[in-house]
């Protein structure tokens, strides 16, 4: 197997490359159109055939060129509700070589987020990176986010490795045990406390432009 992490230091966005070297089939998780030359070079370097392009979430409303750019990778696109990409449901299995990736529907950061489980690794996009997304600094659906994290992420085995889609001066990978115990927004919180915290984030987001205009 081959596993590679690409990090954009400016935005904090993370992309993951997985490959079965026996079959030469590969998967990209959360690639970005601006990185096409690098991604293509990585695939060519090991003579890999891209089997799937997987997106935990997307902001195509503010980045309308992204689907067209990713289409140049010439592999089936999997993402949440959209006019592009293949339709998948919770539990869909995506093969590449002798490997299998399982689709987990985890709304919250956006209304149609997906996560991807592979071996002992869980790629969860913006679910746990609550305020780190450069395109959306707060969850779109806090109630759904709470359910996705507490019912689908925190119920995984303690040693499961969690890979984020964004980071801000933080680690890209952690474990379920760590996040369940110490996550700043979820650990030790009730659902109502979490939602109140998210509401406060929204209020600060709304007030910030007003305060800047008054200065």
Q: What class, by secondary structure content?
A: alpha/beta
Task: State which percent range the strand residues make up.
Answer: 25-35%
Strand order of the largest sheet: 6-7-8-9-10-11
CATH top level? Alpha Beta
Count of DSSP strands = 11
Question: What is the total domain count?
Answer: 1
Amino-to-carboxy terminus distance? 55 Å
Q: Write the CATH homologous superfamily.
A: Ribonuclease Z/Hydroxyacylglutathione hydrolase-like
**Order of helical and strand elements:** EEEHEHEEEEEHEEHH
- Total number of helical segments? 5
GO molecular function: sulfur dioxygenase activity
Protein name: Glyoxalase II
Domain Metallo-beta-lactamase: 12-166
Organism: Rhodoferax antarcticus ANT.BR
Protein described:
The chain is α/β, with parallel strands linked by helices and 215 residues long. It has one domain: Metallo-beta-lactamase, Chain A (4-Layer Sandwich), CATH 3.60.15.10. The protein is built from five helices and eleven strands. The protein has a six-stranded mixed β-sheet. It has a five-stranded mixed β-sheet with strand order 1-2-3-4-5, with no helix packed on it. The protein is globular, with a radius of gyration of 18 Å. The model is unreliable at 206-215 (pLDDT under 50).
């Amino acid at each position: 197997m081959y596993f590679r992490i690409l990090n954009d230091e400016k935005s904090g966005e993370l992309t993951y490359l997985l490959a079965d070297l026996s079959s030469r089939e590969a998967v990209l998780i959360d690639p970005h159109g601006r990185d096409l030359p690098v991604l293509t070079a990585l695939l060519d370097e090991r003579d890999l055939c891209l089997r799937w392009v997987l997106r935990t979430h997307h902001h195509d409303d503010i980045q309308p060129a992204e689907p067209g750019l990713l289409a140049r990778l010439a592999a089936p696109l999997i993402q949440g509700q959209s006019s592009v990409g293949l339709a998948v449901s919770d539990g869909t299995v995506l093969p590449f070589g002798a490997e299998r990736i399982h689709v987990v529907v985890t709304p919250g950061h956006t209304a149609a987020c997906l996560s991807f489980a592979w071996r002992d690794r869980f790629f969860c996009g913006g679910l746990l990176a609550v305020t780190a997304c450069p395109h959306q600094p707060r969850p779109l659906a806090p109630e759904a986010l709470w359910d996705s994290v507490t019912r689908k992420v925190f119920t995984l085995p303690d040693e499961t490795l969690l890979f984020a889609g964004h980071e801000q001066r933080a680690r890209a990978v952690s474990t379920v045990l760590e996040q369940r115990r110490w996550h700043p927004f979820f650990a030790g919180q009730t659902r109502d406390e979490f939602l109140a915290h998210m509401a406060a984030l929204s209020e600060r987001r709304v007030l910030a432009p007003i305060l800047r205009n008054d200065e």
